[in-house]
Amino acid sequence: MAGYSSTGKNTNPSTGWDDERIITALQHGGAQERGAAMAQLFYNRDWPGRVRAFVLKQGGTVEDAEDHLQDVLVATDRALRRGYFKGDSQLDTYIHRIMEQSWYNKKRKKKPILTAPAERAEPPADLDIEQLLLSREKVGQLMELAGQVGDRCKLIYYFRSLGDSFAEIAEKMGFSSAALAKKERYRCTKRLEAFLEANPAWKKLLQ
Q1: What is the rounded CA–CA span in Å between residue 35 and residue 32?
Q2: Do residue 33 and residue 75 come from a single domain?
Q3: 147 and 91, same structural domain?
């Protein structure tokens, strides 16, 4: 693939991650490397923005787009790790097909895509950052928010959004125990709270 030689020398100076390195990490790397590869693939290539643009063009809502992003992320991770991608196209092209097919399959199965927002009470003054970040309702925006305090935090919340326990996160990210993974999550949450206080526009968006 372009940008990565047979000797293993990466020729992409911007991130150091090209298609071949990402696939190799997902199929053969350790848990921490796999998580880093997925973060590079989805967030450094702006798949939240791409999925949002596609879904809105199809008549969906921002909420539909955020939900669909999670589906695309999980389907892509599964496909690449199981070796379904054969390298016949660029990886971005393959993900684009997953995005389209998954959306059209939902429509063919007549699964509801457009839904009226549920009535909800006025949000509390202190946002529950953890619950917001684990919510599928705004996953795209919230992963972008997590990225404001570093890729390490974004990975923790990414794995939590997939339902991983702290023990599983510890194994994937190289923490020595579940307790340390949970402690790092707590630090990330505190950083996010400070970021939201300093950036009212973000806080308003989440409400």
Answers
A1: 5
A2: yes
A3: no
